[in-house]
Specification:
The chain has three domains: 32-70, no CATH class; 78-174 and 382-442, D-Maltodextrin-Binding Protein, domain 2 (3-Layer(aba) Sandwich), CATH 3.40.190; 180-354, Periplasmic binding protein-like II (D-Maltodextrin-Binding Protein, domain 2, 3-Layer(aba) Sandwich). It is 29% helix and 18% strand. The chain contains twelve helices and 16 strands. It has helices spanning 2-23, 104-111, 133-142, 198-205, 215-220, 227-237, 255-267, 297-306, 344-354, 391-405, 407-413, 423-433; strands spanning 33-42, 45-54, 93-95, 97-99, 123-125, 147-150, 170-184, 246-250, 291-294, 310-315, 328-329, 332-333, 339-340, 377-385, 437-438, 441-442. Strands 4, 6, 7, 8, 9, 10, 11 and 14 form an eight-stranded mixed sheet that branches. Helix 4 crosses helix 7 (255-267). Mean pLDDT is 91; it is low at 1-30.
Protein backbone atom coordinates (compact mmCIF):
# COMPACT_ATOMS: atom_id res chain seq x y z
CA UNK A 1 0.00 0.00 0.00
CA UNK A 2 2.85 2.36 0.89
CA UNK A 3 4.31 1.77 -2.51
CA UNK A 4 0.97 2.66 -4.11
CA UNK A 5 0.79 5.96 -2.20
CA UNK A 6 4.33 6.74 -3.15
CA UNK A 7 3.57 6.14 -6.83
CA UNK A 8 0.51 8.36 -6.71
CA UNK A 9 2.48 11.07 -4.98
CA UNK A 10 5.18 10.90 -7.60
CA UNK A 11 2.62 11.23 -10.37
CA UNK A 12 1.04 14.20 -8.62
CA UNK A 13 4.38 15.91 -8.27
CA UNK A 14 5.18 15.29 -11.96
CA UNK A 15 1.85 16.75 -13.05
CA UNK A 16 2.37 19.73 -10.81
CA UNK A 17 5.77 20.23 -12.34
CA UNK A 18 4.37 20.19 -15.85
CA UNK A 19 1.68 22.68 -14.92
CA UNK A 20 4.30 24.91 -13.49
CA UNK A 21 6.27 24.82 -16.71
CA UNK A 22 3.20 25.57 -18.81
CA UNK A 23 2.10 28.46 -16.64
CA UNK A 24 5.55 29.94 -16.20
CA UNK A 25 6.43 33.14 -18.15
CA UNK A 26 8.09 32.59 -21.53
CA UNK A 27 11.81 32.33 -21.34
CA UNK A 28 14.04 34.94 -22.77
CA UNK A 29 14.62 32.69 -25.82
CA UNK A 30 10.94 32.40 -26.81
CA UNK A 31 10.20 36.08 -26.25
CA UNK A 32 13.06 37.21 -28.47
CA UNK A 33 11.94 39.57 -31.25
CA UNK A 34 12.66 38.62 -34.82
CA UNK A 35 12.88 40.55 -38.09
CA UNK A 36 10.42 39.43 -40.74
CA UNK A 37 9.33 40.68 -44.20
CA UNK A 38 5.55 40.94 -44.45
CA UNK A 39 3.33 41.47 -47.50
CA UNK A 40 -0.13 42.74 -48.34
CA UNK A 41 -2.20 43.85 -51.36
CA UNK A 42 -3.28 47.48 -51.66
CA UNK A 43 -5.03 48.73 -54.83
CA UNK A 44 -4.07 45.38 -56.35
CA UNK A 45 -0.36 46.13 -55.85
CA UNK A 46 1.92 44.09 -53.61
CA UNK A 47 3.40 46.04 -50.69
CA UNK A 48 6.33 44.73 -48.66
CA UNK A 49 7.52 45.92 -45.26
CA UNK A 50 10.03 44.63 -42.72
CA UNK A 51 8.78 44.30 -39.12
CA UNK A 52 10.56 43.33 -35.90
CA UNK A 53 7.99 41.46 -33.82
CA UNK A 54 7.81 38.88 -31.05
CA UNK A 55 8.41 35.51 -32.65
CA UNK A 56 8.55 37.02 -36.17
CA UNK A 57 4.77 37.22 -36.47
CA UNK A 58 3.36 39.63 -39.09
CA UNK A 59 0.89 42.29 -37.89
CA UNK A 60 -2.81 41.93 -38.63
CA UNK A 61 -3.52 42.38 -42.34
CA UNK A 62 0.00 41.35 -43.35
CA UNK A 63 1.38 37.93 -44.26
CA UNK A 64 4.74 36.23 -44.64
CA UNK A 65 3.50 34.85 -47.93
CA UNK A 66 3.73 37.15 -50.94
CA UNK A 67 0.25 37.48 -52.53
CA UNK A 68 -0.41 37.68 -56.25
CA UNK A 69 -2.30 40.67 -57.70
CA UNK A 70 -5.85 39.70 -58.51
CA UNK A 71 -6.85 39.67 -62.19
CA UNK A 72 -9.31 42.47 -62.82
CA UNK A 73 -12.92 41.39 -63.24
CA UNK A 74 -12.20 37.79 -62.34
CA UNK A 75 -9.62 37.42 -65.09
CA UNK A 76 -12.01 38.52 -67.84
CA UNK A 77 -10.34 41.85 -68.57
CA UNK A 78 -9.05 42.03 -72.11
CA UNK A 79 -11.05 39.00 -73.31
CA UNK A 80 -13.90 40.85 -75.06
CA UNK A 81 -16.32 38.57 -73.20
CA UNK A 82 -19.28 39.44 -71.04
CA UNK A 83 -17.91 40.83 -67.78
CA UNK A 84 -14.79 42.33 -69.40
CA UNK A 85 -14.47 45.75 -67.74
CA UNK A 86 -12.49 46.98 -70.76
CA UNK A 87 -15.86 47.13 -72.54
CA UNK A 88 -17.44 49.46 -69.99
CA UNK A 89 -16.77 53.22 -69.85
CA UNK A 90 -18.72 55.90 -67.98
CA UNK A 91 -19.72 58.19 -70.87
CA UNK A 92 -19.31 58.90 -74.56
CA UNK A 93 -15.86 60.18 -75.52
CA UNK A 94 -13.95 60.95 -78.70
CA UNK A 95 -10.24 60.18 -78.78
CA UNK A 96 -7.74 61.98 -81.03
CA UNK A 97 -4.97 59.77 -82.42
CA UNK A 98 -1.93 60.21 -84.69
CA UNK A 99 1.56 58.90 -85.29
CA UNK A 100 3.32 55.88 -86.75
CA UNK A 101 2.35 54.73 -90.23
CA UNK A 102 3.88 51.36 -89.25
CA UNK A 103 0.88 51.00 -86.91
CA UNK A 104 -1.75 52.23 -89.36
CA UNK A 105 -3.25 48.88 -90.45
CA UNK A 106 -3.75 47.76 -86.83
CA UNK A 107 -4.91 51.18 -85.68
CA UNK A 108 -7.42 51.23 -88.53
CA UNK A 109 -8.75 47.77 -87.68
CA UNK A 110 -9.20 48.62 -84.00
CA UNK A 111 -10.57 52.17 -84.27
CA UNK A 112 -12.85 52.07 -87.32
CA UNK A 113 -15.27 49.73 -89.05
CA UNK A 114 -16.89 46.57 -87.78
CA UNK A 115 -13.85 45.39 -85.80
CA UNK A 116 -13.33 48.66 -83.91
CA UNK A 117 -13.31 49.06 -80.16
CA UNK A 118 -16.37 51.04 -79.11
CA UNK A 119 -17.36 50.03 -75.54
CA UNK A 120 -20.99 49.76 -76.50
CA UNK A 121 -20.88 52.67 -78.92
CA UNK A 122 -19.49 55.13 -76.37
CA UNK A 123 -15.91 55.43 -77.66
CA UNK A 124 -15.15 57.11 -80.97
CA UNK A 125 -11.83 57.89 -82.62
CA UNK A 126 -10.58 60.60 -84.91
CA UNK A 127 -9.27 59.68 -88.33
CA UNK A 128 -5.68 58.45 -88.29
CA UNK A 129 -3.38 60.59 -90.47
CA UNK A 130 -0.41 58.20 -89.94
CA UNK A 131 1.93 61.20 -90.09
CA UNK A 132 4.87 59.26 -88.63
CA UNK A 133 6.39 58.35 -85.29
CA UNK A 134 7.90 61.79 -84.80
CA UNK A 135 4.45 63.33 -85.09
CA UNK A 136 3.08 60.76 -82.66
CA UNK A 137 5.63 61.84 -80.09
CA UNK A 138 5.29 65.60 -80.56
CA UNK A 139 1.48 65.59 -80.60
CA UNK A 140 1.17 63.60 -77.38
CA UNK A 141 3.64 65.97 -75.72
CA UNK A 142 1.81 69.11 -76.87
CA UNK A 143 -1.55 67.62 -75.87
CA UNK A 144 -3.22 67.69 -79.28
CA UNK A 145 -3.87 63.92 -79.23
CA UNK A 146 -4.99 61.47 -76.59
CA UNK A 147 -2.77 58.66 -77.88
CA UNK A 148 0.47 59.08 -79.82
CA UNK A 149 1.89 56.11 -81.70
CA UNK A 150 5.62 55.68 -82.26
CA UNK A 151 7.82 52.78 -83.31
CA UNK A 152 10.26 53.90 -80.65
CA UNK A 153 9.39 55.07 -77.15
CA UNK A 154 10.33 58.56 -76.06
CA UNK A 155 13.66 58.37 -74.31
CA UNK A 156 16.74 60.61 -74.19
CA UNK A 157 19.10 57.70 -74.89
CA UNK A 158 17.42 57.06 -78.26
CA UNK A 159 17.21 60.75 -79.15
CA UNK A 160 13.43 60.47 -79.41
CA UNK A 161 12.31 62.65 -76.50
CA UNK A 162 10.86 65.93 -77.83
CA UNK A 163 12.50 69.11 -76.58
CA UNK A 164 11.11 70.14 -73.20
CA UNK A 165 9.27 66.85 -72.61
CA UNK A 166 9.63 64.94 -69.34
CA UNK A 167 9.62 61.19 -69.95
CA UNK A 168 8.23 60.44 -66.48
CA UNK A 169 5.01 62.27 -67.36
CA UNK A 170 4.05 59.61 -69.90
CA UNK A 171 3.20 55.92 -69.95
CA UNK A 172 4.60 53.99 -72.93
CA UNK A 173 3.03 50.71 -73.95
CA UNK A 174 4.16 48.09 -76.50
CA UNK A 175 1.29 48.12 -79.01
CA UNK A 176 2.24 45.82 -81.91
CA UNK A 177 5.08 43.60 -83.14
CA UNK A 178 6.04 43.67 -86.80
CA UNK A 179 8.83 43.77 -89.32
CA UNK A 180 10.06 45.92 -92.16
CA UNK A 181 11.22 44.74 -95.58
CA UNK A 182 13.53 46.03 -98.27
CA UNK A 183 11.28 46.29 -101.30
CA UNK A 184 12.33 46.91 -104.89
CA UNK A 185 10.92 47.19 -108.40
CA UNK A 186 12.60 45.17 -111.13
CA UNK A 187 9.38 44.09 -112.77
CA UNK A 188 9.80 42.71 -116.28
CA UNK A 189 13.49 41.97 -115.79
CA UNK A 190 13.03 38.26 -115.36
CA UNK A 191 14.33 38.52 -111.80
CA UNK A 192 12.33 36.81 -109.10
CA UNK A 193 14.18 37.37 -105.83
CA UNK A 194 17.36 39.39 -105.35
CA UNK A 195 19.62 38.86 -102.39
CA UNK A 196 21.09 41.93 -100.71
CA UNK A 197 23.53 42.02 -97.82
CA UNK A 198 23.03 44.66 -95.15
CA UNK A 199 26.32 46.21 -96.26
CA UNK A 200 25.08 46.49 -99.85
CA UNK A 201 21.84 48.14 -98.73
CA UNK A 202 23.88 50.60 -96.64
CA UNK A 203 26.08 51.38 -99.67
CA UNK A 204 23.01 51.87 -101.89
CA UNK A 205 21.59 54.46 -99.49
CA UNK A 206 24.95 56.21 -99.22
CA UNK A 207 25.57 56.30 -102.97
CA UNK A 208 28.47 53.83 -103.15
CA UNK A 209 26.30 51.40 -105.16
CA UNK A 210 24.11 53.08 -107.77
CA UNK A 211 23.17 50.30 -110.22
CA UNK A 212 21.58 46.88 -109.93
CA UNK A 213 24.33 45.46 -112.16
CA UNK A 214 26.99 46.39 -109.60
CA UNK A 215 29.58 43.57 -109.33
CA UNK A 216 29.00 43.23 -105.57
CA UNK A 217 25.28 42.55 -106.04
CA UNK A 218 26.00 40.12 -108.87
CA UNK A 219 28.50 38.26 -106.67
CA UNK A 220 25.99 38.05 -103.81
CA UNK A 221 23.47 36.53 -106.21
CA UNK A 222 25.59 33.65 -107.45
CA UNK A 223 28.04 35.39 -109.74
CA UNK A 224 27.99 36.32 -113.42
CA UNK A 225 27.20 32.78 -114.60
CA UNK A 226 24.13 32.32 -112.38
CA UNK A 227 20.61 32.93 -113.64
CA UNK A 228 20.16 35.95 -111.38
CA UNK A 229 23.63 37.25 -112.19
CA UNK A 230 22.93 37.08 -115.93
CA UNK A 231 19.61 38.92 -115.48
CA UNK A 232 21.33 41.67 -113.48
CA UNK A 233 24.05 42.04 -116.13
CA UNK A 234 21.36 42.23 -118.80
CA UNK A 235 20.01 45.39 -117.18
CA UNK A 236 23.34 47.00 -118.02
CA UNK A 237 23.85 45.58 -121.51
CA UNK A 238 20.31 46.48 -122.54
CA UNK A 239 20.75 49.98 -121.12
CA UNK A 240 17.57 49.47 -119.11
CA UNK A 241 16.35 52.50 -117.12
CA UNK A 242 15.65 50.01 -114.30
CA UNK A 243 19.38 49.48 -113.84
CA UNK A 244 19.71 52.87 -112.15
CA UNK A 245 18.73 52.48 -108.50
CA UNK A 246 16.19 55.04 -107.31
CA UNK A 247 16.46 55.29 -103.54
CA UNK A 248 13.25 56.05 -101.65
CA UNK A 249 13.34 57.29 -98.08
CA UNK A 250 10.93 58.75 -95.52
CA UNK A 251 10.71 62.54 -95.57
CA UNK A 252 9.37 62.88 -92.01
CA UNK A 253 10.67 61.62 -88.68
CA UNK A 254 9.90 57.94 -89.04
CA UNK A 255 10.04 54.93 -86.76
CA UNK A 256 10.53 52.67 -89.76
CA UNK A 257 13.56 54.80 -90.70
CA UNK A 258 14.86 54.41 -87.14
CA UNK A 259 14.59 50.60 -87.27
CA UNK A 260 16.05 50.52 -90.79
CA UNK A 261 19.00 52.70 -89.78
CA UNK A 262 19.43 50.67 -86.58
CA UNK A 263 19.71 47.50 -88.72
CA UNK A 264 22.16 49.09 -91.19
CA UNK A 265 24.32 50.32 -88.33
CA UNK A 266 24.20 47.05 -86.38
CA UNK A 267 24.48 44.56 -89.24
CA UNK A 268 25.74 46.51 -92.23
CA UNK A 269 28.53 48.61 -90.82
CA UNK A 270 26.80 51.89 -91.66
CA UNK A 271 28.29 54.95 -89.99
CA UNK A 272 24.78 56.37 -89.52
CA UNK A 273 23.35 55.77 -86.07
CA UNK A 274 19.59 55.59 -85.46
CA UNK A 275 17.92 58.69 -84.06
CA UNK A 276 14.59 60.41 -83.93
CA UNK A 277 15.67 62.81 -86.66
CA UNK A 278 14.68 62.80 -90.32
CA UNK A 279 17.19 60.98 -92.55
CA UNK A 280 17.22 63.58 -95.30
CA UNK A 281 18.03 62.92 -98.93
CA UNK A 282 21.07 63.52 -101.12
CA UNK A 283 23.54 65.97 -99.60
CA UNK A 284 22.59 65.25 -96.00
CA UNK A 285 22.52 61.89 -94.22
CA UNK A 286 21.59 59.73 -97.20
CA UNK A 287 24.05 60.41 -100.01
CA UNK A 288 22.48 58.41 -102.86
CA UNK A 289 22.37 60.52 -106.07
CA UNK A 290 18.93 59.36 -107.26
CA UNK A 291 16.64 59.82 -104.29
CA UNK A 292 12.93 60.33 -103.69
CA UNK A 293 11.12 61.31 -100.48
CA UNK A 294 7.89 59.63 -99.33
CA UNK A 295 5.54 60.89 -96.64
CA UNK A 296 4.77 57.56 -94.93
CA UNK A 297 4.75 53.78 -95.40
CA UNK A 298 1.77 53.89 -97.73
CA UNK A 299 3.37 56.54 -99.94
CA UNK A 300 6.69 54.70 -99.95
CA UNK A 301 4.99 51.48 -101.10
CA UNK A 302 3.23 53.43 -103.87
CA UNK A 303 6.53 54.99 -104.94
CA UNK A 304 8.22 51.60 -105.19
CA UNK A 305 5.40 50.39 -107.42
CA UNK A 306 5.61 53.51 -109.59
CA UNK A 307 9.38 53.73 -110.12
CA UNK A 308 11.23 50.99 -112.05
CA UNK A 309 14.60 50.28 -110.50
CA UNK A 310 13.56 51.70 -107.12
CA UNK A 311 14.37 50.42 -103.65
CA UNK A 312 12.81 51.32 -100.31
CA UNK A 313 12.03 50.12 -96.80
CA UNK A 314 8.41 49.51 -95.87
CA UNK A 315 6.46 47.84 -93.08
CA UNK A 316 5.62 44.19 -93.79
CA UNK A 317 1.86 44.63 -93.33
CA UNK A 318 1.74 47.01 -96.31
CA UNK A 319 2.53 44.08 -98.60
CA UNK A 320 -0.94 42.74 -97.78
CA UNK A 321 -2.72 45.85 -99.01
CA UNK A 322 -4.35 45.39 -102.44
CA UNK A 323 -2.14 46.90 -105.11
CA UNK A 324 1.08 46.29 -103.19
CA UNK A 325 1.36 42.59 -103.94
CA UNK A 326 3.61 43.41 -106.90
CA UNK A 327 6.32 44.78 -104.59
CA UNK A 328 9.32 42.49 -104.71
CA UNK A 329 11.11 41.91 -101.41
CA UNK A 330 14.84 41.36 -101.14
CA UNK A 331 16.10 38.28 -99.35
CA UNK A 332 18.09 39.38 -96.29
CA UNK A 333 20.51 37.49 -94.08
CA UNK A 334 19.92 36.70 -90.46
CA UNK A 335 22.82 37.11 -88.06
CA UNK A 336 23.92 33.53 -88.74
CA UNK A 337 24.12 34.22 -92.47
CA UNK A 338 20.98 32.42 -93.62
CA UNK A 339 19.01 34.00 -96.46
CA UNK A 340 15.39 34.71 -95.57
CA UNK A 341 12.21 36.08 -97.02
CA UNK A 342 10.02 37.87 -94.45
CA UNK A 343 7.30 35.86 -92.68
CA UNK A 344 5.35 36.34 -89.48
CA UNK A 345 7.16 33.26 -88.17
CA UNK A 346 10.66 34.66 -88.54
CA UNK A 347 9.52 38.09 -87.31
CA UNK A 348 8.19 36.33 -84.18
CA UNK A 349 11.57 34.59 -83.88
CA UNK A 350 13.25 37.99 -83.61
CA UNK A 351 11.08 38.88 -80.62
CA UNK A 352 11.76 35.48 -79.03
CA UNK A 353 15.51 35.94 -79.49
CA UNK A 354 15.37 39.41 -77.95
CA UNK A 355 13.62 38.12 -74.82
CA UNK A 356 10.96 39.77 -72.71
CA UNK A 357 12.96 42.52 -71.00
CA UNK A 358 11.61 45.18 -73.38
CA UNK A 359 11.45 48.66 -71.89
CA UNK A 360 11.55 52.27 -73.16
CA UNK A 361 15.32 52.18 -72.62
CA UNK A 362 15.90 48.73 -74.19
CA UNK A 363 13.55 48.32 -77.13
CA UNK A 364 15.59 47.43 -80.23
CA UNK A 365 15.11 43.90 -81.59
CA UNK A 366 16.97 44.22 -84.93
CA UNK A 367 19.77 41.82 -85.90
CA UNK A 368 19.04 39.27 -83.18
CA UNK A 369 21.01 35.99 -82.95
CA UNK A 370 19.75 32.60 -84.07
CA UNK A 371 18.59 30.77 -87.17
CA UNK A 372 15.60 31.92 -89.23
CA UNK A 373 15.41 35.22 -87.36
CA UNK A 374 14.18 38.18 -89.43
CA UNK A 375 16.84 40.89 -88.98
CA UNK A 376 14.55 43.90 -89.37
CA UNK A 377 11.85 43.49 -86.70
CA UNK A 378 10.50 46.03 -84.25
CA UNK A 379 7.86 46.70 -81.63
CA UNK A 380 5.79 49.85 -81.87
CA UNK A 381 4.46 51.82 -78.90
CA UNK A 382 1.41 53.74 -77.78
CA UNK A 383 2.14 56.78 -75.61
CA UNK A 384 -0.33 58.44 -73.23
CA UNK A 385 -0.20 61.05 -70.50
CA UNK A 386 0.29 59.47 -67.08
CA UNK A 387 -2.02 61.92 -65.31
CA UNK A 388 -5.37 62.31 -67.06
CA UNK A 389 -7.26 65.53 -66.36
CA UNK A 390 -10.55 64.04 -67.60
CA UNK A 391 -11.34 60.77 -65.85
CA UNK A 392 -13.83 59.50 -68.44
CA UNK A 393 -11.44 60.18 -71.32
CA UNK A 394 -8.55 58.59 -69.49
CA UNK A 395 -10.58 55.50 -68.69
CA UNK A 396 -11.52 55.08 -72.36
CA UNK A 397 -7.85 55.45 -73.38
CA UNK A 398 -6.46 52.78 -71.08
CA UNK A 399 -9.30 50.35 -71.63
CA UNK A 400 -8.95 50.61 -75.41
CA UNK A 401 -5.21 49.99 -75.14
CA UNK A 402 -5.68 47.03 -72.79
CA UNK A 403 -8.30 45.53 -75.14
CA UNK A 404 -5.98 46.08 -78.11
CA UNK A 405 -2.90 44.57 -76.45
CA UNK A 406 -4.87 41.51 -75.35
CA UNK A 407 -8.02 40.53 -77.25
CA UNK A 408 -7.21 42.29 -80.52
CA UNK A 409 -3.78 40.67 -80.76
CA UNK A 410 -5.28 37.23 -81.19
CA UNK A 411 -8.29 38.39 -83.15
CA UNK A 412 -6.75 40.85 -85.61
CA UNK A 413 -2.94 41.08 -85.59
CA UNK A 414 -2.08 38.29 -88.05
CA UNK A 415 -4.73 39.35 -90.55
CA UNK A 416 -3.24 42.86 -90.52
CA UNK A 417 0.32 41.62 -91.04
CA UNK A 418 1.62 41.66 -87.46
CA UNK A 419 2.76 39.08 -84.94
CA UNK A 420 0.55 38.89 -81.81
CA UNK A 421 2.36 40.35 -78.82
CA UNK A 422 4.12 37.69 -76.71
CA UNK A 423 2.20 37.04 -73.48
CA UNK A 424 4.94 38.57 -71.32
CA UNK A 425 4.94 41.76 -73.40
CA UNK A 426 1.14 42.01 -73.26
CA UNK A 427 1.38 41.63 -69.47
CA UNK A 428 4.00 44.38 -69.40
CA UNK A 429 1.65 46.62 -71.38
CA UNK A 430 -1.07 46.09 -68.80
CA UNK A 431 1.37 46.75 -65.98
CA UNK A 432 2.30 50.08 -67.60
CA UNK A 433 -1.35 51.02 -68.09
CA UNK A 434 -1.93 50.54 -64.35
CA UNK A 435 0.18 53.69 -63.89
CA UNK A 436 -2.33 55.93 -65.71
CA UNK A 437 -4.41 57.79 -63.15
CA UNK A 438 -6.86 60.63 -62.74
CA UNK A 439 -6.37 62.12 -59.32
CA UNK A 440 -5.98 59.10 -57.04
CA UNK A 441 -7.99 56.77 -59.28
CA UNK A 442 -6.29 53.92 -61.15
CA UNK A 443 -8.30 54.04 -64.37
CA UNK A 444 -7.68 50.57 -65.78
CA UNK A 445 -9.40 48.74 -62.94
CA UNK A 446 -12.46 51.00 -62.63
CA UNK A 447 -15.73 49.09 -62.89
CA UNK A 448 -17.77 52.03 -64.12
Amino acid sequence: MKNLFRSLAAVALAVAGLLAVVSAPASAGTSHKKSVVCYRLRSNKVQAKRYVTKGGVCPKGWSKHKPKPKPASGGLQGTNKSGDIDLVVPSSVSLAINGSSFDAPMVGATTSGSTAYSAGGKVHFSSYPAAGSGTGRTTIVNGSVNIGFSDQPMTPSAGTLPTGAVEANFVQVPYILGGAVVGYNLAGSGLSTVRLTSSEVAQIYDGAITTWSNPAIIATNGGASSTTGKALQALYTSNSPSNTIKVIYRAASSGTTYAFTDWLHSAGGSAHTPSGNVMEGSGNLWHAPNILAAANNAALATDINSNPGSIGYVEYSYLLIPGNAAIQTASLQDRNGQWLQPTLTNIAAAAAAAGTNITPDAFSIVNQPGNNVWPLATYSWAIVAKNQTNEATGEAIVKYLDWETHFAQGALAKAEGYVPLPAAIAAYSRQQLMNVTSGAAVLLTKKT
